[in-house]
Amino acid sequence: MSNNNKDIAWRIYLVYFFCCLLGIAVISKVIWIQWVEGEGLREKSEKMTIANKTIKAVRGNVYASDGSLLATSVPKYELRFDVNADAITDKFFYENLDSLCIRLSQLLKNKSSEEYRQELIAARNSITKSGKKGGRYHLIGRNISYRGLKEIKRFPLFRKGRYKGGFIYIQRNKREKPFRFLAERTIGYKRSDVSVGLEGAYNAELQGVDGKRLMQKIAGGNWKPLNDENEIEPKNGFDLNTTIDINLQDVAENALLKQLSMHGADHGCVVLMEVKTGEIKAIANLKRNEFAGYYEGYNYAIGESTEPGSTFKLACLIAALEDGFIELDTEIDTEHGKKKFYDQTMYDTHDHGVITVKRAFEVSSNIAVAKIISENYSNDPQRFINHLHRMNLNNKLNLEIKGEGMPKIKGPKSEDWSGVSLPWMAHGYEVLMTPMQILTFYNAIANNGVMVKPKFVTSITSKGKVVREIPTEIINESVCSKETLEKVQSMLDGVVNNQGTAANLKNAHFHVAGKTGTAQIANAQYGYEYELKTSYQASFVGYFPAENPKYSCIVVVNAPTRNVYTGNLVAGPIFKEVADKVYANSLKMHEALAERDHKAPSPLPFSKNGNRNDMYKVFTQLNVPFVELEESSIWMKTSTKDTIVETEAIRFIPGLIPNVVGMGLRDAIYLLENNGLVVRFSGKGIIKKQSIMPGKKVIKGQTIKLELV
Amino acid sequence: MSSMPYVLFLTFLAILYIANGYYAEKTIKQLYKTTNEIKELRSEYISNKSDLELVKQQSHVAFSIKSLELKESLSPPNKIIIKKMNGKHVK
Fold first, then answer.
1. Does the model's pTM come out above 0.90?
2. CB distance from B38 to chain A under 8 Å?
3. Using CA atoms, how far apart are residues A550 and A532, in angstroms rounded to an integer?
4. pLDDT tens across A543-556, in order?
5. Domain count within chain B
6. B35 falls within a domain
């Protein structure tokens, strides 16, 4: 027995011993973890659950002059499909695949439903490198709008959600331009290292400063802030108030689009500028794509320096006028439209004979202007060049938008100066200018000699409060003397209104003043797609209304392909359409109507005789005071006095012709036809005469003629 | 035994503390959800507005009324200015 007891005791001790050992092991491990490994582990856990999260600053908006949004940030979605989600069985997948593909194709419009089908099946069956079934993150589309996402969430398969339907979407902030292609290139964009347009130019102001906040991870993948305040407060970006008038922009962009497609041109631009302030009200740049459609691909107005052609003649004649070499009525022999300068021959489009300087400008004679410049300045070409410099034609405008083309005005010391440089510069060759630079110069002429810098942004605001006002910058107080200014303004007016090259722009309502330009451009710069060696650049630059200029505008069309290429025919109509619509739409621009000499004798409106109820209803509605002199009848006669309208009854005796003189036609026809008469009438307004005298007996079917005045 | 009410009070405080923690987390989740909803609604507003602006444009209106044989007027508006004198309209 005792032996048995001893045996049990031994076993108990053994178990006890092991339990103790286990206990010691646990405790020692706890101690180990707590104190030896502890430091590292605690750090690790902190890293996983606590982080300094960036709080993205909201990028500022870009506004048009009327407060419409030109660019803003909105969330867009990237859609992914977990094609091999655990819950998607083969049966479930193939049953819904067709309808899913059809709806995707309908909504996204980039692929056919069959293409989607093949793509998704391939994704489901693909095998990853590690040998697992692939396709767990298949891209469906990028930049999907919230509206699109809402639709797609209802599609078959996808409506089951993330785990059962494999539908994944990621939100990203994107810039959106509600007006789409309107002024797209000028509004621009900013991507890591590419700065385009205003978004690029004012990136520092728009982007704001990101904030930082210490956050702890909580259930559900959310983060909660640890402290009461942000470590670094985010500063939202400022808003940009641009000068662009979205209505005028629409007019300009669409007029340009229409003409470019009509002439099959390669590209073109329109810029509309307010004369006094230099504010750019509209800037359209269109470039042809491979499908013969047009898009805003490059800011030609700002970036493209080309030989301006005849529009440059203005600067040349200003130089000669300032030096007193010519007057507007100085006569020039244009040598039958053909003249040799050294080894080069210059042509005019027509033989203009002997003409005055003003006429030469109006008909755009190359030879006349070339002769004026080369004859007067050949001894001292630098004098001519100095004039051009004084008009700031050799300087960049230093626009905030990147990529401004460099103007080129060479001098006699330049390497490429030759004997024909003077005559060729005189009609706009061997010089380079961008459309914006030419416009700025013409705007100075419209602005009585004051050259202002083109302005795109009026102010920078933050939550509606102005942070920085951007004033109009004056480049040159006076590009030429007052006398010269008046002379060139009359020449510019003559181009349009005195049967000059742009007579087709003449308008009955207001005067346009400006200059056409047609320049030959070597096609090398446009690449291989042109068979011809040269193409044309048609332009028109001017301002309106000529008497008191409000807007200046330039239109440049490059490489029209339908055999029409002159400035007046290609660029002119765009200018005309823009000018006409701008003029018709700008209430501010118009003078009030002059007061009439002959006013109505009474401030009260005149009323015809007629039906009592109608009359009193109108009087009451319009608050016209009236008084009944006699007791009422259905028909009343009015007499309008200074402060009150007096009414009297008219009584008609049945069977006798009524007196309808002084009535309106409607009432008269009612009365007469009820008496069985046939009514004929002429004129409009009030009945002045009736062919049958009142009071005569009515003969049924008789015709009565009424005369209205 | 006499400290029992005090212990109960402490327990109550502890429960309150934990409940408050959960409540805060719930609020934070709500906050995220609402912020996102604002963003989405704004996005929807912008794209609807964009569509509206597009059909509101002069060129678009002109195009869509072409079939009615209507076109844009090119004659400028007539403007009448009424002078105000002592707050009253006078001719």
1. no
2. no
3. 40
4. 999 999 999 999 99
5. 1
6. yes
